[in-house]
Amino acid sequence: MTKFKDVMMQRAIVAQFTFGSSAKKLPDKMLKSIQGGYGGYAECCWLLADYLSKYYVILFLFFLLSCTMNKETKDDILRIDIRKAENRTHLNASDFISSIEYVKLETSSNCLIGEIVRMSVSENYILTFSASNCFLFSREGKFIRSIGQRGNGPADFISSSYYVKIDEKYDMIYLMDYSFIYAYRITGEFVKVLNITDIRKKTGIATIWNVTHWKEDLFCGNIDLNSGKEPYRFIIFNLEGDVVKLFTNHKFFKPYSLFTTDNMEARIYCYNEQLFFKEMLSDTLFLINDQLELIISAVFDLPEPKITTSMWGQEIDIIQYNFIRRIYEIDNYILFTG
Question: Within 13 A of 147's CA, how many CA atoms are on the CB side?
Answer without folding.
Answer: 28
